[in-house]
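Sample entry copied in:
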Amino acid sequence: AKSCVAFALLRAVGADVAQSGTCQGREAGPEAEQDECFATLQIQSAHQGGEGLGAVQRDPAPPTVTAPAPPTVTVPEGPPVGVSEGVEISQSLWQSMYDFIVYIEKRTIPPDGWVHSCTGTVWGNMVLTAAHCGFEPDVGESTITVTLATGKKADVINHAIHPKYAHTKEGGLHPYDVMLLTLNETYENKEYVYLQSSTPKMGTALNVGGFGEREPGKEYDANRPVVTKTPMSVVACEGEEPPFLCASSGPDSGEAACSGDSGSAWFTVERKGYMYVAGVHSGNGGNGATCGSNSKYSVFTPTGTVKNWIQSQTDVFKWPSY
């Protein structure tokens, strides 16, 4: 048999050392032939139980690491969000700090599905919202559904409208625009929520969060509410009579409650982070605009002015002692 002298590449810390010779009677030639010779020697050595004449000691190939697939995040279906020019809060923040904000929806006529309706404040099994949200011929206990921060929907089994609220077919703003909804289950709020007994004074800063339109005529599909990024201060109303109060973030802010935010809470955060709801949103005013940069201010009913009526209906809501 013809001798086969290795032509091996000995690799050592970046340096290549070559030994040339003959392989199966041929002079060391091109790289392809060198590789062929090297492979032949290794095969022959393997049959003899050796490690291969002139075999190159190579580091083992690193293990193949397969990156885990990203987790599948299932976002539950939810209502559209609101507050023109506001800040959309995260799902986790809604479920913790702002879980008192709930979405209210009702059936259309004919009953061909759910339509966006209003926003409300939940505590236990009661929801405080605007009276005009339920003052429609198609609204009854069995046709209103409340979506909680957990994504679960609760049915409304009873409702009560303030006796001084006077709804008209022409719509518009009407005093005592508040309504209570009774749910078929009790919700356990993460944060404590008080209803404020006193009426906010001029200049008092308030926030509002709801599921209305982000801009007039355009709903924003999401499953969490929007909260004003700039507090809205109590300002003088222009034509709206007491007990209404008005609030604005300023003439150039563009922030205001919008269609679908009706019934939402006007709230402040005080004392250990507790939420103090000072009013219920009714609409916008000043120039007949609906919301956003076209509206001079938003209008709400102070909870203090309807405290006696709320307490006559339920003892679920708590009122601060000061």
